C-alpha cells in the first residue's frame, strides 16, 4: 500500500486540512513554503493519466476552494499549483496529488523555466501534438 493510502486509512498520521468521502487535503510534511498543502483523491490512482475525469474534477474543485481559503487566511503574495506526473517530472509518491504552494516572496521556492525556444520548431511541435 502506498504512503498516501496509509494516511487515508489512518495507519500514518497527518495534518488534515480538508476531508470528504472522495478527497483528502493534508499539510505536506516538507512545508516547502508555509501552508504547503497536498490535495488527493481517496482512491489510489498513480497520476493524472490514470485518474478518471470525474475524480479529477472533484480533486481540482477542492484545489480551487482550498487555494481561495489559503489565500484569504495566510495572505500569501502568490500561489503555485503543481502536479508532478512521473519520476522524470519529480513525482516521488505514486498516488495522484496536487500541491498548493503559497508564495510569500519571489525566491522562497525554486521553480525554473529555461528559455529553450531557439531549439524549438513550433509548427513541428504543433503537428506532433495534434496528429
Ligand atoms: P511529489 O514529489 O510531487 O510526488 O510530492 C510528494 C510530496 O509528498 C512531497 O512534497 C513530500 O514532502 C510529501 N510527503 C511524503 N510523505 C508525506 C507524509 N507522510 N505526510 C505528508 N506529506 C508527505
Ligand atoms: Zn495510494
Low-confidence stretches: none
CATH topology: HIT family, subunit A
Q: Which band does the percent of strand residues land in?
A: 15-25%
Largest sheet: 5 strands, antiparallel
Q: How would you spell out the order of helices and strands?
A: HEEEHEEH
CATH superfamily: HIT-like
Order of strands, main sheet, comes to: 1-2-3-5-4
The CATH architecture comes to 2-Layer Sandwich
Number of domains: 1
The Cα radius of gyration reads 17 Å
Overall pLDDT score: 97
Number of helices: 3
Give the CATH level 1 class. Answer: Alpha Beta
- Cα shape: globular
- Termini separation (Å)? 38 Å
Q: How many strands?
A: 5
Chemical compounds bound to the protein: adenosine monophosphate, zinc ion
Please, what is the oligomeric state?
Answer: single chain
Helix- and strand-based class? alpha+beta
Topology, pairings included?
Elements: H1 3-8, E1 16-19, E2 23-27, E3 37-41, H2 53-74, E4 78-82, E5 98-103, H3 122-129
Antiparallel strand pairs: 1-2, 2-3, 3-5, 4-5
The protein binds adenosine monophosphate (AMP) and zinc ion (ZN).
Adenosine monophosphate is lined by residues 3, 12, 14, 26, 28-30, 38, 84, 90-93.
Amino acid at each position: 500500500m502506498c504512503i498516501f493510502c496509509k494516511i487515508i486509512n489512518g495507519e500514518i498520521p497527518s495534518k488534515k486540512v480538508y476531508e470528504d468521502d472522495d478527497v483528502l487535503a493534508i499539510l505536506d510534511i516538507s512545508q516547502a513554503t508555509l501552508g504547503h498543502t497536498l490535495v488527493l483523491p481517496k482512491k489510489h490512482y498513480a497520476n493524472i493519466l490514470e485518474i478518471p475525469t470525474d475524480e479529477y474534477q472533484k480533486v481540482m474543485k477542492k484545489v480551487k476552494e482550498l487555494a481561495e481559503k489559503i489565500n484569504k487566511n495566510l495572505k500569501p503574495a502568490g500561489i503555485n499549483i503543481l502536479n508532478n506526473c512521473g519520476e522524470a517530472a519529480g513525482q516521488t509518491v505514486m498516488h495522484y496529488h496536487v500541491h498548493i504552494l503559497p508564495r510569500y516572496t519571489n525566491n522562497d521556492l525554486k521553480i525554473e523555466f529555461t528559455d529553450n525556444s531557439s531549439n524549438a520548431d513550433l509548427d513541428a511541435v504543433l503537428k506532433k501534438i495534434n496528429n
